[in-house]
Amino acid sequence: MRWWDTSALLSLLFGQSKTADLKRLLASDRGMVIWWGTQVESVSGICRLQRENHFGAAETNRIFKALEALLSTAYEVQPTEEVRATASRVLRIHELRAADAFQLAAALVWAEHRPSGLGFVCLDRRLREAAAREGFEVLPDL
Q: How many domains does the chain have?
C-alpha cells in the first residue's frame, strides 16, 4: 500500500505529464491510502480548473465519476487528535500549508510514525520534500 496525495490523484484524472507513471504505480499498488480530506481537496481542484475553462461540463462529470471510483476503494485515514497533533508538529518543522500538513500527518499516523520504506505518491514539491525528510519513499521520480 502507498500513500496517495491529492496532487497525484488529480494528475491520474487529468492526463498530465506524469499520468502514465502514476497509472503504473497505481496498477502495482495493493491499495491506495488517502487522507479524510482528500475528496474535498480533489473536488476543489476539479472545480477550480473547470472555472478556469480547462474543460467543460461533460469532462467535469467524467472526472468526478473517475474520482468517485478511485476513492471508493481507498483506505481513508480519519481526522483524529493524533493527526491534528502531528500536523501541528510538521508545520513547525517543514514549510507547508495546513492542508499539506494534514496530508503528511495522516500519512505518518498511517505509517505508525515509521515511514521508512513506505511509498508516498505526490507531485507537490514542498510536500514531496517534507515527506522525504520524514523518511517516506517519495514517488514518482521527477
A: 1
48-65 residue pLDDT tens: 999 999 989 999 999 999
Helix axes 6-14, 38-51, angle to 10 degrees: 50
Domain holding 71, by residue range, is 2-139
User: Is 134 within 8 Å of 93 (Cβ atoms)?
Assistant: no
> Residue 122, class by beta-carbon neighbours within 10 Å (0-12 exposed, 13-18 middle, 19+ buried)?
buried
Average predicted confidence (pLDDT) for the chain: 95
**Strand ranges across the sheet with 2-4:** 75-77, 32-35, 2-4, 119-121, 137-139
Sign of torsion over alpha carbons 59, 64, 70, 73: negative
This prediction has a pTM of 0.94
CATH code of the domain in which 123 resides: 3.40.50.1010
